[in-house]
Amino acid sequence: MNNKGRNLLIIFFMYAGSILLLMLCPDRASSSPYLDSAHGNYTPLPAYGVKRDPTLVPQLDGYSRGNCAHCHEQHASIGGAEPAPTGGSPSIYELFYSNYVSQTDNFCYKCHTDLNSYQTGGIINRSYSYRAGNYNDGLNDILEAFSFTSPDSSHDLGDIRTYITAQSWGYTNYSNPCVACHNPHRLQGDPANSSLYGSSPKSSTTRGWPVSLPSQHSKDNNAWGLWGDGTGEKMSDYASGLRYQAPYRNGSTSAYEPDGSTTQLGTNLTDYATFCQDCHSDSMTGAPYSLSNTPVDWATSSGDKHGKRGADATSGNYIDIDNPYSNTYGAQYVLACTDCHEPHGAPNVMLIRKEVNGAVLSGTISTITPPAGACTPTFPSGSKELGYLCNRCHKDDADAGVGSANEWQYVHHDSSDAPYGGGMCNDCHSGSGMTRNPINCNCCHFHGSTDSAAPSSRRTNRRTF
User: What is the pTM of this model?
Assistant: First the structure.
């Protein structure tokens, strides 16, 4: 038997032995930290741990909430019959359904959906815009989030599994891509009772920590701990001498993400920059991923200005930004990925959130093409949809009191720190006379961008994101 075969056999007996003990003692699981997790919670009431609905699965009637048998079946048979749902291929993890089939069909979705869920009482899992931003975008389950298709977007689970199995992190082709980010035996709801009570955003008293760092994955769940719950794992730690500023919650100028408190400096927010860069620091522009604008360099002074690189500045003015951001710290800010992006899926391209910094985007971002390469040698006129995101934190002409919303003449040409002076409009803009067509935002603004697409006579070589 080769090493892979022996390892699979060891995994099989490890799970089988554990589940046998549970079958003999089905009242509840008895080990922490699983009991502190969203799946293992069985007390205090109202408990919200895993429990397959006994009206759908009568064989499990009497098995307590949080019992491992609600997910793992030793022999695919209890009481002489296979519990629902039936079908699916055998799993080395003894799961009751195929671990992963497709983007919209896997083990986790059998409970994490608001329609026909096998979890007693169903499960509501809201978007980050709702949980952190207090904006109800109507999205209320994980299956729905991963079902967004173009021009909307969602993380590609097939690509995730391909990536994690190529790393030396202990994942295999048998792994469910959801466990790239979530340890199923450790994760907490955020808010902690969201599986039953998804009608409220998280607060400072209902916080949970749902993610585990992919590169720390191991078969030992005590080693593969939560990410964000400890010292050194917050955005305030990542900023380290720079500044993280929490955005406003929807409709407020006094409550801040992620929990509606007055805390602003990231001491209460998971370090999502480090978390996301476990994968997104690598290039994914080629097969099989075909993503654009990667890798993302958030961690060094040579990377993006929304990360640890300081803003370019003249006359100490830095950038024209909206509250709660201030020019006092204009060159110092470090953003969290979740300030702009949803983790699962979004009704915009590139997982861009529906609500950002206290208000809903004023339009849908369905396209930000053409890519930068298509912008040379002449700039095309086109979509300014990316501006719907930018103007949630940056001053457009309306904010500056000189024009209309999602127009950007002021910051590019007229402010005290404008990179391009007046005159020679036709170097960049098509049109004639006083009528000049806008430039597609994505010609110059994307992860890792400069204004290198501009004509050489106007180019500044400044980083533009």
Answer: 0.90
